[in-house]
Amino acid sequence: MLQKVVRSTVIDAPIARVWAVLRDFNSHDQWHDVVAESRIEGGERSDQVGCVRSFSLKDGNRIREQLLTLDDRQYKSTYCIVEATVPLLRYAATVTLKPVTDGNRTFWHWESTFATPPGREHELRDMVAQGVYEAGFANLRRHLQRGGDLRAPGQAAMPVAIALPTRRVRLQGYGDAAQLRMEDTEAPPPAPGEVRIRQRAIGLNFIDVYQRRGQIPAMLAPGGTPGMEAAGSVLNCGEGVHGFLPDERVAYLCPQPGAYTGVRNVPAQWLVRLPPAVDDEVAAALLLKGLTADALLHDVAPVRPGARWLVHAAAGALGQVLCQWASRLGAQVIGTVSTEAKARIARAHGCAQVLVTADYRFADAAQALGGADVIVDGLGKQAQQENLAALAPCGHWISLGQASGPLAPLDPDALLAKSATFSRPIVFAYVAEPQALGRRAARLWAALADGSIKTPTIERFTLESAAQAHERLESRERSGALVLIP
Ligand SMILES: NC(=O)c1ccc[n+]([C@@H]2O[C@H](COP(=O)([O-])OP(=O)(O)OC[C@H]3O[C@@H](n4cnc5c(N)ncnc54)[C@H](OP(=O)(O)O)[C@@H]3O)[C@@H](O)[C@H]2O)c1
């Protein structure tokens, strides 16, 4: 006989806030005490109907559940168990929210039907009713209180409508690192579609240097603030933003610079929620480079087992992530670096062979290894001719960046002799759709969790030391990633 459990409660928070949590099928490990850890399978979005969450309970049980329906207008979702180590058979559940008419409160109805092995009806009904539903009500209340949605008596919520004082790095004019200066500023309230973030770590990327030098004037004008990525916590959300709560830990990459600051407004479409295991500095060091690696390995040049990947600056921030992940996916990775010390780092990060060259001469050595099927080139100008010479027949030269200066115009006929391919991708195009961003970020965190990539080595600078951090980034004396701490 089918068992039925029905529970309901009233939560002292507006329906939009409660729904923002519950509509996220993978949020329960952040608020429900019985859940140890949870992930969405296959890199799907956690509000995608059909997605499967795979989670473990603190008592050691494992459960896989599928999201069957999600209705943002009715505030209703249904889901079922597809596999579990607890004997809840044919379990299907419905969550429904309704606004309470007097005040900003929410009525939450949670019900399910399921079968059990004979004799265990009572025990399992109690487990669902008390251990899952009643405990869940209490845990979500506490979660919302911690996020500031529910105000304890006398406690002030973060006002949405006021500007907040902060500090930012201003680019005085194009040129060297001394053009980066600190100044006081204000972060205005988030506009519709934006989230205001208290930043805790800001990732540095070589593109910040190109912008500072004036090599990409369309991206950053003098007077502006550099920086493409950061991690921190949500302060508040502009109109029309769903799915983020105050105090939630998030990270972003964004094609509009402006990250070198303490508080920043970012369009919600570029944000990802951070898993508990990924701290702010790691997220800021890894997100943009990791998603770039993901796009290269899975889309720009999907890895074929045994393919020879020649990766320049293999001990650099992107290089370390890319070489490990490419090698784990079956590529034979050949790295180039400028010193023996960096060669040791590159070998420890997935390179089967390392070519040590400070003067961009590597083609003969690469040809001696059979030629490169794929070249990942962040060097640009100084390596242009060597890259052509290093390619294997039908090879693919991916021009990602220009650390040694911009490429000279490329004659298409230069590719003809080897029937080669040339591409010039940029990561933002590969995460412009929120679904793609969610899928790639989930794959990146999973690669970090399963050891495909190690936690990056990180050098820290204060936000005030942004100029020194840029000098360090350009120096060729370092390896790994740099972050600024506001
Ligand atoms: N298109 C995209 O979406 C995308 C995304 C991420 C990164 N990138 C590109 O990928 C490359 C790596 O970026 P990253 O941020 O991870 O930097 P990085 O690799 O940590 O630093 C750049 C490295 O380039 C090498 N280099 C060679 N010539 C140089 C020169 N003249 N000046 C300075 N460095 C030189 C250095 O390594 P050695 O001393 O070992 O040669 C240096 O460590 C950059 O070109 C960047 O623009 C592109």
From TrEMBL:
UniProt xrefs under PANTHER family: QUINONE OXIDOREDUCTASE PIG3-RELATED, QUINONE OXIDOREDUCTASE-RELATED
Stored Gene3D superfamilies: 3.30.530.20, Medium-chain alcohol dehydrogenases, catalytic domain, NAD(P)-binding Rossmann-like Domain
MF-aspect GO terms: mRNA 3'-UTR AU-rich region binding; NADPH binding; quinone reductase (NADPH) activity
Record organism: Pseudorhodoferax soli
CDD domains associated with the record: PYR_PYL_RCAR_like, QOR2
Keyword rRNA-binding listed: no
Full protein name: NADPH:quinone reductase-like Zn-dependent oxidoreductase
Keyword annotations: NADP, Oxidoreductase
Domain Enoyl reductase (ER): 175-484
GO cellular component, one term: cytosol
Keyword Oxidoreductase: yes
Family matches, as InterPro entries: ADH-like_C, ADH-like_N, ER, GroES-like_sf, NAD(P)-bd_dom_sf, Polyketide_cyclase/dehydratase, QOR-like, START-like_dom_sf
